[in-house]
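Exercise 7.
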Amino acid sequence: MDNIIPIIVGAVGLLIGFIIAKFLEKGKASRTIANAKKEAESILKSASKDGDNIKKDKIFQAKERFLELKAEHEKVILGKEKKMSEAEKRTRDKESQTTSELAKSKNLNQQLERKLKDVEHKSEFFDKKQSELEKLHKSKVQQLEVISGLSADDAKNQLMESLKETAKSDAMTYLQTTMEEAKLTAQQEARKIVINTIQRIGAEEAIENCVSVFNLESDDVKGRIIGREGRNIRALESATGVEIIVDDTPDAIILSCFDSVRREVARLSLHKLVTDGRIHPARIEEIVRKTEKQIDTEIVEIGKRTIIDLGIHGLHPELIKAVGRMKYRSSYGQNLLQHSREVAKLCGVMAAEMGLNAKVAKRAGLLHDIGKVPNTEAEVETPHAILGMQWAEKYGEKPDVCNAIGAHHDEIEMKTLISPIVQVCDAISGARPGARRQVMDSYIQRLKDLEEIAFGFGGVQKAYAIQAGRELRVIVESEKVNDDKAAELSFEISQKIQTDMTYPGQVKVTVIRETRAVNVAK
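Solution. The predicted structure, written as tokens, is:
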């Protein structure tokens, strides 16, 4: 018992201590919870305050962005309204011009009607007078027969015999005078026809051959190209010899010059300057010098590649340069180098068929138009055939080649068989549909359009535009298209081409339907 009591007392003490410790821990936990609640409330308040501030900032930024977008939109709207007003003004001007022209046409029609009525009245009056004169003539003839004692036929024969010699001399004099007047009139009429032709198509040819368009990413670059007080554009024009036209054309600058090589130098120089971004007179002169060297090198390379492709050897370096310069020339809208290559190939084929020297014919065909790329202003006044012949003689070409160059437009007499071949092949290349007076891109596009029209019909398997666009070959699927349908399809395609396209001459549509049985023997 004595041992149990201390144990019980100890246990009770431990229990009391444990209970006290629990109460102390519970107090600490309550205080910790209270502190945590206070901190959470303060964090929530600060977060709410920060959120309000951020919200106000975002609203302010959104308002500013809205105002900026509104200003840009108003600017775009004003620009569009300005363009619309300009277009309306042009339309009004055209309407007024058309109205005035219609009024003039109406007045002319009225005057023409009045003149026609006057002519009708005069014609009736003249008919009456003619009948009266015939009656009077018959009566006078009868009176003369009675007085002279001769019939009208006898008197006519005597008069003709007496006047025959005089009539001959007068007729010869009249014939000579008439021929001289006809020659003079023919020369004057020929000059009028030439002048009218130049007036009608000169502007079109000049624009096509003397103007290049340099496209820009934006109109802001125009100001940098012009420079302060126009010093950049003046330096560029002075360095290249090309007139640079900066007008209201959007995102474009026009380069005008008769020399296409200088236009190409100006175009490449502008491209380099705009790409680099540094545009000032010293930089312009440097870029132009480098571009000129690049173009000169490219001209020589083009000439070398051309003679290598055609198998021509031993050509003088100056003639090689002339061949390269032909890339930057055009004749009646046809690229001169492409035309000369075609003529050379045609000359080679024709000479081979006739048993002549094909290499000499190719050489003459390639060089026949080198007179169209003169080096100096004085040479421009010489006909290009004569100038090309003089160059060929100067640089050691054979007499056959020189004669073919000089005679291909009949300026001199043809002395060899190569000369008529060059003349004929020159005409063939120029007369090919799409070769002249038509840009090559539009010619190729016309061939594509022909094929696309054929593919627009059902049952068409393949379509080929051949004969330089003069014939369209259409291959159809034999399972889907029968013989009657093939004939109908050919008619429908021809009518579609006739309705939707513009083209020179005629287009022959050939529909081919065939059945093939194919097996393989192994």
